[in-house]
## 1
Amino acid sequence: PRNQYARDQRWMSEASDDFYLVAIGASAGGLEPLQAFFGALAQLKNTALVVIQHLSPDYKSMMGELLGRNTSLPISTVEDGMEIRADNIYLIPPKFNIYLRDRRTFGVSPKPSGGVNLPIDVFIASAAGFYHRHMVAVILSGTGSDGARGVVEVNAAGGLTLSQSPETAQFDG
C-alpha cells in the first residue's frame, strides 16, 4: 500500500519527463460522465487531473463533494499560485478562469465581464503550451464550442485528445 503522506508530498518538478496533465472539460450534462470517469479511473501515477466545468457565478458548486464519492484522490479548488501535485484532482473556482503560469503553477483570473467566456479553451490552450505530449484533453457533454480551440492546441503540441461520444452525451453540441 502507498504511503498517503508520501503521495501528498510529491509534486511535479519542471525536469520531470514522466508527469502527465489531464484536463477534463464539461458543460451542460457533464456531471454524470464526470462521476462515471472518476468512478472507473484506475490508480494514477504521476498524473494530475484538472476539471474545468462551466459554472454559474451565483451557484455554489458541490462538484468536489460529488466527485469525492467516486474517488479517493484529493480534490482541491484551484487558487492563484497553487502548485500542481501528482495524483490530485483540481477544480475551477466559480467566477474565475484558470490557466498555467508555468509547468507547475496555476494562475487564476476573473472571468471577463460581458462577451463570451471559454474557460475550457483558456485552460487547455495554456496547459498544452507547457505539457506538449504529456497532455491529455477530454471534452465531455455540453453545448457550444468551448474546448474546440483547446483540443486543436493539444493536438498541435503532440498531446492526446478525447471526446465523449455524441450518442452518450446528454448534450452533444
## 2
Amino acid sequence: WTRVSGDAGAPADLAPLDLRRLVLRLVLGAVGVLAVVGVGSVFAASQLAEREAVNDAAGIADVLAESVVQPVLTEELAQGDPAAVAAFDAIARTRILSDDIVRVKLWSPQGRVVYADEPQLIGQTFPLEEEQLDALRSPSVRAEVSELDRSENVFEQSTDKLLEVYRPVWTPAGTQMLFEIYAAYDPVRERAAELWRGLTGVMLTSLLLLFVLTVPILWRVFTRLRKTQQQREELLVRAMDASAEERRRIAGTLHDGPVQDLVGTSFTVAGAEARAEALGDAALADD
C-alpha cells in the first residue's frame, strides 16, 4: 500500500493497487535476474570449457610424448644433426600435427630449439619460462592458455590464443629435452558455446517454472490485499461520516441548549438595565 495526501484537513487515502504495474515489476525483475545470471553463465561456461580443454590437451601431449616422441628420440637429434631432425620432422608431420595440434617443438634445457615444424625456429635460442624450467626440474606435464606474446611465438601470432602443453622427454642415453605442442583454441570456444546453450536452457526453464508457480500466489496475495484495502476504505468512509454526524449533533445540541439560554439571559439583562435607567437608578443599571 502507498499513501497519497488528500486536500488540507482531509484524511489521507490509500492509493489503489495496480495489477499491471505489479506484473510489470515482476517481469522487469525476472529480466534483471536473467541478465545477471546470463553474464555469470557465460563466464562460467568459458572457464569450464577452458579448463576441460587444457586438461584434454595435457592428456594428449602426455600420450604423444610416451607413444610417439620418446621412442624415436636419439642423441643425434639432441645434438641437432640435420638427418635426425629431418627423420623426426617426417614423424611429427604424420603422427603429431593435425587440425587441433598446430605447432610442435623440442627444446634443449638451455633454451635451444632442437626441432620445430616451423624450420625458421630450429637452432634459435630463447629464454625458457619459469614454468618450463619447473617442468624440467620436476618432471611433469604443464598446460596453460598461451597469449602468444613471447618472442618464440612470432610464427604463432596469426591467432589470438593457443593451448600450450609441455613435458620433459629423454633419449635412450638419458639426455633430457622438453617436448612442447600448441593446440588450437577454437574447440574451447565451441565447447563454451555448447555449455552456455545448455546452461541457458536450464536457466530459462527454471525461471519460467518459477514464474508459473509465482503468478497464482501473487494473484491470491493481490486479491487479498485488494479486498483488505476496500474494507479499510469503507471503514475510513464510515468513520468520516460518523465524525461529520457527531459534529452536526454537537452543533445542534449547542444551538438548542446553552446558546438559546445565553441569548435569553442576554435579553433579560438588557431589559433589567433599561428599567433601572428609566427609574433613575444608575448604580443598578451599571451593575
## 3
Amino acid sequence: MTLDALPAIVITGVIAAAVAYLLTPVAMRVAIRSGAIDNPDSGRRIHVRPIPRAGGLAVVVAFILVGLVALVLQAELELYGGGWRWQPERWFGFQGPATEQVLLAVFGGAALAAAWGFLDDKWQIRARWQFGVQVVLAGFAILLGLQILEINNPLEFLGGVFADDTLVFEGILASLITALWIVGMINSINFIDGLDGLSTGVAIIAALTLGFVSLGFQSSYQLVVALLCAVFAGALLGYLPWNFNPAKVFIGTTGVMVMGYLLAVLAILGSAKVAVALLILGVPIIDTFWIITRRILSGHSPFTPDRGHIHHRLLDLGLSHRGVVLLIYGITALLAVVSLLLAGG
C-alpha cells in the first residue's frame, strides 16, 4: 500500500471538513431566502417543522474549492513527495482523453449536478425531468472520457464460461453501462435519503473506502483519486453535524445529485473500485432495486414516493430515528471492511 501521501491527504480532508462546516450556515441562509424549504406533511416525511434544503451547496463548494487548490499546490509544491511534477496525463490510469477533460468531468459535473439540484430544491421539479437531467449528467461524463471499460467479474468463482477475472466493455456498450451506473448511483442515494444524516453518512463511508482502495495501488494517478475521495468525504463530514438527527438542514436534491454523481465517477476512475462501490453501497442499491420493482409491479411510477424504503420499515418495527441511521451505518461499514479485504486479496 502507498502510504507516503497519506498525511497530506488526511490534512486536505480535514481542511475540506472545516470549510464545509463553516459554509453550511451560509447554505442554510441561501436556502431560506430562496424558498428552498422542506415542509412537513402527514405522509412519508418524518420531520415536524420546516427545514431548509440545499445543504449540499456547502458540500459541493468545499469539494471544488479545496480539491482544486490541493491539486494546484500538489503540482507546484510537491506536497506528496516522490518527485511529482505537473504531469496530469499520469494522474488517471485509464484510456481516455487528456486529464484536463477528466478533471472537468469531476468538478464541472459536480457543479452542474448541484445547480440542477438547487433548482429542484426551490421548485420541486417533476421526477421525469430529474431523470432526464441525470441522463444528461451521465452523457457529460461520458463525452469527457469517463467510461467503465472493465470491472472485476463477480461470477468468476463459478468457473466455466464465467472464468475470466474481468468483464470488458467497448464502444456503445461501455457508454450504456456507464450511463446506467451514474444514473443508478444517483437514484440509489436519492432513495435512501429519508432520515437525518443517513445518505450523508453512507456516502462518507463509501468515499473513505474508495480512497483506501486507491492507496492500495502503486500508480501515482490512484493517489490523486484518493485525494479527491478524501476531500469529498471531508466535505460531507463537515456538513454532517448540521444534518444529523435532529437535523437543522437537509442536504436536498442539491446534495443528493452531487453525492450520487461523485461516488459514481470516483468509482469509475479505477476499474476495481466499481466492484467495491457495488458492495459498499449494497443497502441503498438493494433498496432501490426492491422499491422500483415493487412500484412497477403495483402499477405505479418507479419514482412515486412512498414509505416502503428499508429505513421506513425499520422505523415501523419500532427502532428510533437515530437507531435506524446507526444500524445502516454499521451495515455499510461492515460491507466496506469486506470490500477492502476482497480488494486487498
## 4
Amino acid sequence: MSHAEKQSAKLSVRQLTIIFFLGLGYTIVYATPFIQYVFYDSLVGTLGCTQQQLGYLITIFGIGNLLAPFGGMLSDKFNTKKIYLLSVGIICVLNVLFILNMTYSFALIIWAGFAFFALFLYFPAHTKLVRLVGSENQQGTIFGFTESFCGITNVIVNFIALFLFAKFANDTFGTNGLKAAIIGYAVLGVHSLIILAILVPDPGKPTPESGGESNINSKMTIKDWVSIVLNPRTWMSGIAVFTTYTMYCTLSYYTPYFSNVLGVSLAGTGAIAIIRQYGTRFIGAPVGGWLGDKIHSVSKVVGVSLAAAVVIVLVFMLVPVGTSAAVLTALTLCAGVLTYMARGCMFAVPSELKIPRKYAGTTSGVVCAIGYCPDLFIFVLFGYWLDKYGNAGYQNIFIYAAVIMAIGVVNAIITQIYKKKVLGKESAQDAA
C-alpha cells in the first residue's frame, strides 16, 4: 500500500461526522418498529392486544427484509441520497400518524409501512451511502464506526425517549408518555434529515473522501439485477451476515441462561446484559473494522471472530452451576466484543470482493435478505426449544449457534480462496 493509500485509510472529521448522523438516522428509523424492546408493557396496554399479537408486528416488519433486494435495485438505478432522505422523512410521518390512532388494527398498517420504507427503501440506500462515505480501502473502518455510532445514538435517543415517557406518562398505560416518546423520535428524525441533506454528498459527484471516484448511479437493468443476485460474491457476503447475525441473536439468550441454569442473581445478569449490549459494541465494532482495513481483509476478521465465538459457546455449555459472575462476565465480554468485531466488518465484505460501488444498493439489498432472514424463524425456533425442553433447550440453542457460526468460518475460508484464485486472476489480467 502506498503512502497516499495509507493516508486515505484514515477517516477525516467530516467523514466521522457524516457517519455519526447516518448512525443517528439508522437509530431513528428503527426506533418505533422495535419500540417494544423499550416500552413493552405500555405498548401492549395502549394497543389492547395480546403478547402474541404484538409479536405479529415484528413478523410483518421482518417480511420487509425479503423486499430489500428490489429496494436495492432502486437505490442503484436512481439517486441514492434522495431515496434515503425520502424514506427517513416518511418514517417520521408514520410515527406521527401512529400516535393519532394508537389501535392494534392501525398498528398493523403502520408496521407494514415501516417494513416497506425502512427495509425495502431505506436499508439498501443507507448501506450504499455508508459505503460511499470513503474509498474502498476505508470500508472496514467506515462500517465499524457506523456500527459503533449506531450504538451510541441508540443510547442517546432512548434516554431522551425515556425522559419524555416519564414526564408525560400520567395515565393508566402510560399512553401519553408513549406518544411523547414517539414524537421525540420523529423530531430527532427531522433534525437528522436536515443535517444529512446538507452533509451527505450527491452520489453523482466525485469527492475527496472517495478518492476522486464518481459515485454516479448506473442505469440498472433486470439482467444486471439477476447477475448480482446469482453472483457467488453476493452470497458469500450474505452468508457472512447470516452467520454473524445468528451469533448476535444468540447473545440475548446468555442472560436467561445465566439466571435459569447457572444460578446467577437477576441483578448480576442485568449488569452483564448492559455491559454486553452497549460496552462491547462501542469497542468491538470500530476495532474490528480498523483491523479489517489493517490486514486488508474484513472477511478474515469475520471468520476469526466466529471461530473464537464457537469456542466460547462450547465453554458456556460446559461451565458448571455456581460459576462465579466474574468468570461469566469475562466470557460475555469476549463474546460481545467478537460479535461486534464481526458486525463492524460484515457489510464491508462486498467491497473486499470487488463488487462495484455502483451496484452497492442492490448488493446490500440481497445481502440483507439473506443475512437477516433469521428474523423470520430463529426466535420462534429458540422459543419452541425452551417451551418444549425447558432449561435443556439452551443446549439446542448453543449447538445450533455453534454449527451456524462454523459455517461462517468455512465461508470466510472460501472467500479467501475465491479472492486468490478468481479475483487475483482478474487483477493479473487487468494489469496485463
